[in-house]
Every structure is written in C-alpha cells, then in structure tokens.
User: Fold this.
Amino acid sequence: MSLFTPVDTQLPGFDGATGWLKSKPLTPEGLRGRVVLTDFWTYTCINWLRTLSYVRAWAEKYADQGLVVVGVHTPEFPFERDVENVREAAKDLSVEYPIALDSEYAVWNAFANRYWPAVYIADAQGRIRYHHFGEGRYEESERAIQELLREAGGDGVGDDLVSVADDGLEAQADWGNLETPETYLGSEQAQNFAGKAADRLGLNQWTLTGDWAVEPHASVLNQAGGAIAFRFHARDVHLVLRSREGEVPFRVLVDGEPPGDAHGLDVDEEGRGTLVEPRLYQLIRQRGPISDRLLEISFLGSGVEAYAFTFG
Assistant:
C-alpha cells in the first residue's frame, strides 16, 4: 500500500509569514530539489510537544540527505503571538530548524490546515505527497521521508528509524489510562465547569474558588489565594498559565495531599511551583496505578491567567 496521498498538491509556500527565526525567509522555488517537511505547531500544545522529539530527530538525521524541516508556528493563545515568547520557547525546546512565524494565520490558511500538530511532506518537485494530523504514525511518516529522499536521488538513505527518548514533556501519553479531555478555562470554549465545592466534583468537572474573572480565553485571578480544582483520570496533568503581575508561587495538592513522587516537572514533592514565563506547566506525572483523582492548584498572587488543562 502506498504511503502517499492520491492527489498531489503544490506546496503553498510561506509568503504570509510575519517573520522568521533560525533562517532567512524560505520559498518553494528556493526549496526546489529538497524534500520539505512542514510542521504546524504552537509551543503550549502538549499534542505537538509529544511529537517534537521525532521531528527534531528527522531534521538532524536527514539534513545532509536533502530534507528541510520548516516549523510553522501558528499561535493558539494571544501571548503566543509574541515573538520573544516563541524565541525563548524554541531555545528551551531545542528547536533548531527554520521557524516561520504565522501570527496572522496566513500560512495556516494557505495550507487549509486545521490542526496542531500537522505534518505535510513535499517532494523535490514541490508537490505535497504525504500528510498526517495529530500524534502517532511516526514510522509511517519517516518511511515517507525516506522514500521521497530516494526519489530525489538521495545517497545512502537507509531503512533504519530514529530512536528518541520517551521522557519529560515529550513522553508519549498513557493512552490506556487517559479518560480526561483537554479542557479550556475561558468563556469561549469552557466545558464541564461546575459551580460546586471541590469535593463534590464529578469526573472531568472543574471549579474555581476565590475572586476570578472568566474572560474569553482564560480564567483570570483578581486576588491572591484563588484556586482551581479538577477531578481527572490520567497519568499527566498540564496547565497553560500566564501572569500579568510577575512571578507567582503556586501549590498543588492531589486528593488533599502533596503529590510526592507524582509531582510533575514544574512542581516539587511538596507541590510547590512558580509561574514565571507564559507556557505549559506540568503539574502531575503519576508513577503508580491510575484512578480518579482530585487536583487543586492555589495561587499566592493575583494576575494569573489560566488557559487550558491538558492530560497525558
């Protein structure tokens, strides 16, 4: 069975990019003769973060054989339009391939794209021959890269596949235990909000305590001491946060207790963490059996913007 899409589409190009990082502007004409992998991303997206180790490894492995990876950063949340935020995220995440900044969604629309992440692979003649939306299919995607490189006359393109570390934010989700969906906390997309006490929440419900304003994209804490509670069923819990008023310490409890060895990358065993830069924070990574748990995160300062919970 062929890996490739039955209808060839020309690579739309990146004319609508509002800027570039790691490269001068790239064009389809300038890329002719190279296999081009276009990867749509936004830096707080856990679904994209779990694909990054593969995209990074492909960029490194096949660069000398004719592959060019272009990361198109199309922001989901307002603060992801800030070039410096994207620059810092790319540095922290070791994204070294060219990045087209797509703050106005012009490149997104040129590709008729609708997903983070999304991969489009064009052959040496500039025709999109393969695409994949979402996570997974890493072997299939790499096989497509290999076949198109061979078509282009690439020398020494082997059959071996990349091997990546399965850890940190880039660890694959525990799909067998993932029963809680991504949940937005702004009024435009909020779901499963329950105006009840934390200990009365049902699975996948959440609530706010303290002085909050629910704005279109985020719940915003007006006064220190507010908290969010969420009853979840997953190995990992992440929360996209931004502060309007500098660094804000926070505390995470699970079923009323410090998380201990279930703490995430951004929390210690006592549940302490600090909101510094606007990004995705990993609050929980459970090491033992997975069951319904109650997470509570309280903030010691005001001006916190809480955008979305994601799980893994």
